[in-house]
Input
Amino acid sequence: MAAVGTVRPSVERQGAPWRDFVHTGPDTLAGRYLRTFWHPVYLAKDLAPGRAKPIHIMGEDFTLYRGETGAPHIVAFRCAHRGTQLSTGWVEGDEIRCFYHGWKYDAGGQCVEQPAEPEPFCGRIKIRGYPTEQYLGLIFAYLGDSPAPPLTRYPEFESDDEVFEETLSDLWPCNYFQRIENIPDLSHVPFTHFQLGRSVPRVEVRETEYGVDATGYHLNGRIDHVHYQMPNVTRFVVGARDSAETSDRDRIKWKVPVDDEHCLDFAVSWVHVSGDGVAKYRERQAERAAQESAFRPIEELGEEVLSSKARVQDMLDHPNATNIQDYMTMIGQGSIVDRGIEHLGRPDVGVTLIRRIWERELRAFAEGRHLKNWTESQVVPPVEGE
Ligand code: FES
Ligand SMILES: [Fe+2]
Output
């Protein structure tokens, strides 16, 4: 388990550091806690073999590259020689060579060549290297201290006979914790996603072995259900979108801090299609993608609504109308919500419970006490919206 170091003075001024869930830089308590988990950091399809990219996660820069063998790797952002950006370098096999003077590093960050040096001292030069794995169409990284725990697997997503890969990543200009608190907040659905109906649910939540189970009970008997999996994962089921689909879609989403005012949403959907339906499904999937690309981006439309240049009521034909609506509410809270102005009530039990869990875990982490060992959540019945 990572040792807990100095906490930023600005955080100390706000009170106990375990009440600060929003700051996730490497010198923060929440940042150190989050670094004890694996996180998706990039879409696998966007990284070709032999290419490198600079990435920014939890306030830190890194170099992500895919070796010529196809394996993804993450090392430090800068070369140890004179500090230039390693992502501009050459990928050679599973190693990366700096563009400036040619020092070369292996996937673990060990320097293995110093071409211009008459007496190389590679053995003394090591930058950081991070465990990296490709899984479910995403590149996952463990950015904390060794040893890394095993990457969480979802065996039901690994079936060969069904189409599962529909991966997405979206950048949101707000703190990741706003996105997390929205997960069990089922009372926003009848207002934010008004087109789904104005039935206001009674919300019940409970802590589970994986995080929080939130259920919304409607007067007409409908039940909404969502799972929040610690520390930044949500799992739920949405309806099928294509006649070839044989059941609802199982979906996993991760909310990963980029910095304190931006986060990335990664999503994987398990789409159930079998036999002859697969080819038809793929064909229509390509058609849908082409149609959707004709619509304007969510961020652009959300910003127009926030500045009252447009109304979301006029955007309901957008294939991601619910995302525009979520964008308006969470970006509308400000890039980091001011919790001092809030007035929480009974329907906010999910928000309150998540904060209580985080505070308990961060405090235990700070004091070196036992942490809850979270397991993965299971499939749940359908809920619309997020
Ligand atoms: S800065 Fe990288 S080799 Fe000189
Ligand atoms: Fe929503």
Observations:
- The helical segments are 9-13, 29-34, 176-181, 189-192, 277-292, 298-306, 321-331, 349-366.
- The mean pLDDT is 91.
- DSSP finds eight helices and 18 strands in the chain.
- Residues 79, 81-82, 84, 98, 100-103 surround FE2/S2 (inorganic) cluster (ligand 1) (CB under 6 Å).
